[in-house]
Amino acid sequence: MKNLVIIPTYNEVENAEKIIRAVLGLSQGFEILIIDDGSPDGTAAVVKGLQQEFTGRLHLIERSGKLGLGTAYLTGFRWALEHDYDYVFEMDADFSHAPSDLPRLLEACTSGADMSIGSRYCNGVSVVNWPIGRILISYFASVYVRTMLGFKIYDSTAGFVCYSRKVLETINLDGVQMKGYGFQIEMKYTAFKLGFRIAEVPVIFVNRKEGTSKMSGSIFGEAFWGVIRLRFRKFQK
């Protein structure tokens, strides 16, 4: 199996080397694709400096500016399909997603799921060091999605995901509309509507210790209205 972990970055110089070493140190033979949106802090330079050490396992795409989380992942998905990966992962650079959980997401897919989600809410609330206000916003965003879409996923906004190749081959990546964190909802709901099996794997989400969050009010606005549009969209393979 070829397994690719896609990590979008923007000003993650404090985390880049540590997350790369943590993921590539796993025994399952994961590879990494960093998609850097022109970080002025030198994140891409750190990645380039490690590519000789991790020849063939560490890949980099540099983009000219902040083009959005969704477009970064779509770029990575296309690259993964072109390079024949079997399982493709979404993961943050800031250690809010534990690299040690990657094998658990992979196992869920190799055991029968088409997509697996590192879920903060399928087994209570498993979030560490987030302000209570942000926990409530995130939790009730998933409640809103379940209510609006009849979608029985507890953590639809999760950014820690494993896709089997057939999911990414089937979804019309050119038709994905949301670019911020609503992208996470759209991808999961599209896979669900296309009949793919989705598993939630309980994980503990830990707020970043270094670097700064990229969350903004406009991201929530896009997701709110985007969910309403998703309800009326037609899906077909």
Helices, strands, pairings?
Layout: E1 3-9, H1 16-24, E2 30-36, H2 43-51, E3 58-62, H3 69-82, E4 87-90, H4 102-110, E5 115-119, E6 127-128, H5 132-149, E7 161-164, H6 165-170, H7 182-193, E8 198-202, E9 205-206, H8 217-231
Parallel strand pairs: 1-2, 1-4, 2-3, 5-8, 6-9
Antiparallel strand pairs: 4-7, 5-7
Helix pairs in contact: 5-8, 7-8
Structure description:
It is a single chain. The strands form two sheets. A seven-stranded mixed beta sheet has the order 3-2-1-4-7-5-8, sandwiched between helices. The chain has a two-stranded parallel sheet with strand order 6-9. The two termini are about 25 Å apart. It has eight helices and nine strands. By secondary structure, the chain is α/β, with parallel strands linked by helices. About 40% of the residues lie in helices and about 15% in strands.
Main pleated-sheet profile: 7 strands, mixed
CATH superfamily: Spore Coat Polysaccharide Biosynthesis Protein SpsA, Chain A
- The helix-strand sequence is EHEHEHEHEEHEHHEEH
Sequence stretches where pLDDT stays below 50 over 5 or more residues: none
DSSP strand count: 9
Q: Identify the CATH architecture.
A: Alpha-Beta Complex
Determine the CATH topology.
Spore Coat Polysaccharide Biosynthesis Protein SpsA, Chain A
* Integer count of domains: 1
